[in-house]
Write a structure and sequence with these properties.
Blueprint: H1 2-35, E1 54-66, H2 69-81, H3 86-109, E2 114-126, E3 135-149
Antiparallel strand pairs: 1-3, 2-3
């Protein structure tokens, strides 16, 4: 009986604190996306042939985001029945957006006007060696070429 109480308590804490952390993170993401909207991140590979003198430099952003206990429990239930695992979808959405934001922040520090040839890489980091399919956290790495105009002074 005590194990059930502990389990339910952990689920409740995981839900409450996980939801609070996720909401706080999304609020931060929305504010920073609005601020960095002026720097487009494009997947095109070629630079438009204008008569501008530009310089390019590699920029990147990386983030590791973990899923909370409640969402891990829901995902394990969903694995039994099949279907979309929405709790992991929001985890990947936050990680992807955060990595792009960190890349854009690095580009803004370098005075970039645009980021070209943007690419995303993901990796799953397992928390437990006992369970092969248990996702502990996910890493997303965003990178691209930041282009800035060269001043002729």
């Amino acid at each position: 009986m005590i194990e059930l109480i502990i389990f339910i308590t952990l689920l409740a804490f995981g839900y409450i604190f996980g939801k609070m952390a996720e909401n706080r993170h999304y609020k931060s993401i929305f504010a920073r996306e609005k601020k960095l909207l002026r720097i487009p991140a494009l997947t095109i590979k070629t630079i438009p042939q204008d008569n501008l003198q530009i310089t390019g430099e590699l920029v990147s952003g990386s983030v590791v985001v973990s899923v909370d206990y409640f969402k891990r429990f829901l995902a394990n239930l969903r694995n039994l029945f099949g279907g979309r695992i929405i709790s992991y979808e929001t985890l990947l959405d936050r990680a992807r957006r955060e990595a792009i934001l960190r890349m854009k922040e690095q580009a803004a520090e370098k005075g970039a006007l645009v980021i070209m040839n943007v690419r995303l890489e993901t990796a799953s980091i397992n928390k437990s060696s006992r369970k092969r399919n248990n996702v502990g956290s996910v890493e997303v790495f965003a990178y691209g070429t930041a282009l800035a105009a060269v001043s002729n002074s």
